[in-house]
């Protein structure tokens, strides 16, 4: 009996200890629950910053990586063989069409031209004498002093001499053209690149080395590829008027030049599903360089007076994007359909928020739908 009573006493004591611990936890539960509850869920108002929704025109851009291409790129090579006598340009210099940029030693060609001109003068004199004889023979044939055969022979002699003079004149013209090639001029307005051949070198028409490369960069063009899905939007923009294109640097921070859409390619690249677009930039001197990579932004359309909110006000969840709207002293959660961004603001494409309403930009991470708030900054 004593053993049974001792066991009962131990069980009863254990039960009392368990009850005491449970009572202590229950007594402290409200304060612990309040401590673990996220801020803004209790009765205390959370301080937030809010900004009013405003209507604004928002441009819609198509972004792509493009390559700067010159309007014209000319590789200057020699058209005659000879010693490069002089180079009359500075590397990177702006040159005009017709400006002399190099000269080739022309002394040998000048000597050949003088010789050809002498042969021409000789043959012209022979021709003149033959023509005078022919005129006399025509008079003599009337008097019967010469035979018809003599007259016919003289007529043939004059014809032969006319051919000789014509060939001499062709030789002289050819040498004059060859001599003009010794003075190399720029065929376009543009910028000369680095010199590739120094004076004193012997240049030939068979050489693949260029004397210089001249690129015409005004106007400059940028070629970029866009997905074929944008063809409809681009064609609609072209039908509405001039389509503007912006060229930014590779970091998309600095605007380099402003231009307009020039042309679309006539076919889609089936391997990539893209189509090439060319834009023209009229005032891009010393800003865009050939083969430079730029970020092209083609303006497809403009959303007229749509509600915009600060981009930082938009939250992202499993159900999509949402914002918190100030509703008196509480936060109201609104699901929104985000559109294109412009600077620090983003367009809202549905009617979830209206101009004049305030959206919370700071402190939203501590809120839930219906949380008590206090706007402390606008």
Automatic annotation (TrEMBL):
GO molecular function, a single term: efflux transmembrane transporter activity
Give residue ranges for domain Multidrug resistance protein MdtA-like alpha-helical hairpin.
112-181
Q: How does this protein sit in the membrane?
A: Lipid-anchor
Cell inner membrane listed as a keyword: yes
Instruction: Tell me the ranges covered by the YknX-like C-terminal permuted SH3-like domain, including all copies.
Output: 308-375
Q: Which keywords appear in this protein's UniProt record, sorted alphabetically?
A: Cell inner membrane, Cell membrane, Coiled coil, Membrane
The record places domain Multidrug resistance protein MdtA-like barrel-sandwich hybrid at 73-215
GO CC list: efflux pump complex
Q: Where in the cell is it found?
A: Cell inner membrane; Membrane
Task: Provide the Multidrug resistance protein MdtA-like beta-barrel domain boundaries.
Answer: 219-301
Q: What is its main location?
A: membrane
Family per similarity comment: Belongs to the membrane fusion protein (MFP) (TC 8.A.1) family.
Identify the PANTHER family for this entry. Answer: MULTIDRUG RESISTANCE PROTEIN MDTA
Q: What is this protein called?
A: Efflux RND transporter periplasmic adaptor subunit
Tell me which species this is from: Pseudomonas helleri
Q: Lineage, please?
A: Bacteria, Pseudomonadati, Pseudomonadota, Gammaproteobacteria, Pseudomonadales
């Amino acid at each position: 009996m004593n053993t049974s009573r001792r066991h009962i006493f131990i069980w009863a004591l254990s039960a009392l200890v368990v009850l005491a611990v449970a009572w202590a936890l229950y007594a402290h539960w409200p304060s612990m629950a309040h401590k673990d509850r996220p801020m803004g869920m209790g009765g205390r108002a959370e301080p937030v910053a809010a900004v009013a929704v405003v209507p604004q025109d928002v441009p819609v851009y198509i972004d792509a990586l493009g390559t700067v291409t010159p309007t014209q790129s000319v590789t200057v090579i020699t058209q005659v063989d000879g010693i490069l006598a002089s180079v009359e340009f500075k590397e990177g210099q702006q040159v005009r069409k017709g400006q002399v940029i190099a000269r080739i030693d022309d002394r040998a060609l000048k000597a050949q031209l003088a010789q050809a001109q002498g042969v021409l003068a000789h043959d012209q004199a022979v021709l003149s004498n033959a023509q005078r004889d022919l005129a006399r023979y025509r008079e003599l044939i009337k008097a019967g002093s010469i035979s018809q055969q003599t007259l016919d022979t003289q007529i043939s002699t004059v014809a032969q001499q006319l051919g000789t003079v014509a060939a001499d004149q062709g030789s002289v013209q050819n040498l004059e053209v060859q001599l003009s090639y010794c003075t190399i001029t720029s065929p376009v307005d543009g910028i000369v690149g680095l010199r590739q051949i120094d004076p004193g070198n012997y240049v030939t028409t068979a050489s693949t080395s260029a004397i210089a490369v001249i690129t015409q960069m005004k106007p400059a063009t940028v070629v970029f590829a866009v997905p074929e899905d944008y063809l409809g939007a681009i064609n609609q923009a072209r039908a509405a008027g001039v389509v503007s294109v912006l060229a930014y640097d590779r970091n998309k921070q600095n605007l380099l030049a402003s231009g307009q859409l020039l042309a679309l390619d006539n076919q889609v690249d089936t391997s990539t599903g893209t189509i090439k677009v060319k834009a023209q930039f009229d005032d891009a001197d010393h800003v865009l360089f050939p083969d430079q990579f730029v970020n092209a932004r083609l303006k497809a359309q403009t959303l007229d007076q749509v509600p915009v909110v600060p981009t930082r006000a938009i939250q992202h969840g499993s159900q999509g994007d949402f914002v918190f709207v100030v509703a008196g002293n509480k936060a109201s959660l609104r699901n929104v359909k985000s559109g294109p961004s412009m600077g620090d603001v983003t367009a809202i494409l549905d009617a979830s928020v209206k101009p004049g309403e305030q959206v919370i930009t700071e402190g939203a991470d501590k809120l839930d739908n219906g949380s008590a708030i206090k706007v402390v900054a606008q």
